[in-house]
Amino acid sequence: MNRQEALALAERGVEELIAALEQGKSERLLEYLAFQAKFHRYSFNNCLLIAIQKPDATFVAGFQRWKELNRFVRKGEKGIMILAPLMKRTRREKNAAPESADEESSPRLVGFRATYVFDISQTEGEKLPQFGVITGDPTKLVPVLRQLISDQGIELRYEKQLGGADGVSEGGRIAIRQGLPAAEEFAVTVHELAHELLHRSERRKETTRTIRELEAEAVAFVVCRAAGLDGLARSSDYIQLYQGDKELLLHSLSHIQHVAAQIIDGLSATSTDSHPATAADEVLETSVAL
Question: Is 176 helix (H, G, I), strand (E, B) or coil?
Answer without folding.
Answer: strand
